[in-house]
């Protein structure tokens, strides 16, 4: 199959792993420096830094969990599975980060923080690494909320692409379909009465009745318009059915 001209300029290249390499390199340099300068308190500093960077997302996940438990347990989690809600709101990697920090703090001996700058520098160095590994990443609930607010879900794109593409093909031929329909139905209430109007119904969700007249008594179904046949996407005489 021949490629389209200028395809390289039209299709974005996949992103590389430069940000991951940079995060790993920075974390390695910073932790090595702390290990050389303060070897006796290295693990405690690392544990405290990880705890500082993970407690915030964990507490935020608790608030998300309350929202999910109170309002979305039955509709989004098949009857309210607590374990599924916890992992969706807080995130597995965030919980593992908190557990690792608590474990390191428990295994090391308590020591006074003699230099606050070490903690600041270590947290600065570990943050990109934890962010890259997904420890500080957004939870599934936050990602879902962003996609729903911005209409970024695959279903939204497919739905609008289907409806707009369908209308783009059918509307230019609608006048001929109506004329053919009226020629086949000479007897009936299909004579023009004043101005004509075209009402296009775009569903907002998948909860659509099989028969629209069952939902609205003002709608009356008489018959389908003649099928529209178009050569499309390598298919000869593809049928577009509408009523």
Automatic annotation (TrEMBL):
UniProt xrefs under Pfam families: STING_LBD (PF15009), STING_TM (PF23417)
Gene Ontology molecular-function annotations: 2',3'-cyclic GMP-AMP binding; cyclic-di-GMP binding
Domain of life: Eukaryota
Coiled-coil zones: none
Localization per Swiss-Prot or TrEMBL: Cytoplasm, Perinuclear region; Cytoplasmic vesicle, Autophagosome membrane; Endoplasmic reticulum-Golgi intermediate compartment membrane; Golgi apparatus membrane
GO terms of biological process kind: activation of innate immune response; autophagosome assembly; defense response to virus; innate immune response; positive regulation of macroautophagy; positive regulation of type I interferon production; reticulophagy
Domain STING transmembrane residues, every copy: 46-151
Protein name: Stimulator of interferon genes protein-like
């Amino acid at each position: 199959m021949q490629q389209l001209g200028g395809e390289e300029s039209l299709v974005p290249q996949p992103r590389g792993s430069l940000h991951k390499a940079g995060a790993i390199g920075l974390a390695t340099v910073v932790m090595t420096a702390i290990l050389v300068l303060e070897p006796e308190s290295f693990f405690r500093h690392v544990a405290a830094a990880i705890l500082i960077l993970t407690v915030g997302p964990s507490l935020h996940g608790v608030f998300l969990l309350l929202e999910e438990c109170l309002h979305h347990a039955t509709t989004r989690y098949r009857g309210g599975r607590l374990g599924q809600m916890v992992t969706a709101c807080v995130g597995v990697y965030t919980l593992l980060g908190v557990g690792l920090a608590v474990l390191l703090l428990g295994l090391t001996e308590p020591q006074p923080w003699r230099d606050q700058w070490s903690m600041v520098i270590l947290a600065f160095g570990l943050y990109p690494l934890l962010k890259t590994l997904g420890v500080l990443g957004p939870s599934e609930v936050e990602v879902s909320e962003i996609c729903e607010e911005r209409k970024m879900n695959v279903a939204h794109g497919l739905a609008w692409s289907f409806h707009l593409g369908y209308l783009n093909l059918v509307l230019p031929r609608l006048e001929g379909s109506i004329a053919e329909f009226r020629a086949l139905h000479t007897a009936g209430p299909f004579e023009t009465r004043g101005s004509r109007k075209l009402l296009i119904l775009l569903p907002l969700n998948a909860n659509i009745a099989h028969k629209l007249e069952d939902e609205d008594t003002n709608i009356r179904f008489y018959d389908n318009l003649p099928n529209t046949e178009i050569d499309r996407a390598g298919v000869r005489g593809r049928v577009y059915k509408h009523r």
